[in-house]
Structure formats: structure tokens, C-alpha cells
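Memo subject: From amino acid sequence to C-alpha cells
Keywords: amino acid chain, backbone geometry, C-alpha cells, three-dimensional fold.
Body of memo: The sequence and its C-alpha cells, given next.
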Amino acid sequence: APREYRPPLSIIKFLELSLAVTCTTLHYYSFNDGDLVTGFLATGTFCGFIVILFTVMAGYLMKAHLHRRLSIFYSLLGCVCFLTSGVFIIEAWEHAFRTRTRDLAITKGSIAVINGVIFLMDTIFTFRERK
């Protein structure tokens, strides 16, 4: 029987999940992002990827592995969503008065951009893994 492909559950998934939870927490304390689109995009991205990443990890622990193409798709989608959310959040708050809420929002946007870059690295690593 052919050996099943089992990618290692990398520390990068835990990092992505931790940053998504951090963004969600900061989003709670700095929710007023100015326009509705930014708020919906950020909320959907942060909460949606917490669910996706938690499910991927739970599947790994139950030995129900995610197909490589699907893993690449989720990582690429995470990259695009987190980068877009981060840029929109920073753009919405960069000219606001310097308050605690603004500082939290800029931090949230910056962490979202960082998580987008980590998702891009995850995409590249997954793509380059041996089959």
C-alpha cells in the first residue's frame, strides 16, 4: 500500500492561530474602523480563520489530514484576507487623533499584515514540501 502523505503540524499554524486570536481581541477593543466594509472584512477574516485553523489542527490530531492543494488554498486566502484587512485598518486609523483606541487599531492592523506575511510563507513552504 502506498504511504500516506502526512505533513507535519508546524509551529507556523500555531503562530497563525495565535495572531488571529490576538487580532480578534484587539478588534473587540477597537471596533470602530470608520467604514462598514473594513469592519466586516476584519471581523470575517479574524473569526473565520480562527475556525479554519482550529479545524485544521483538530483534523491533524484525529489523523484526518488536509489535502495539500486545500492547505495551499487556505494559506493563500489567509494571506490575501489578512493583508487586505491590515492595510484597510491602518488606512482607516492612520490620521485619527492619538488615542488608546487608535493605538490598539494600528497595532491590530500591523499584526494582521504580519500574519498575512506568515500565511504567505506558509503557502510557499507547503508548496515546496515533498509529496
Q: What stands out?
A: The chain has one domain: 11-128. The chain has a mean pLDDT of 90. Residues 11-128 form one domain.
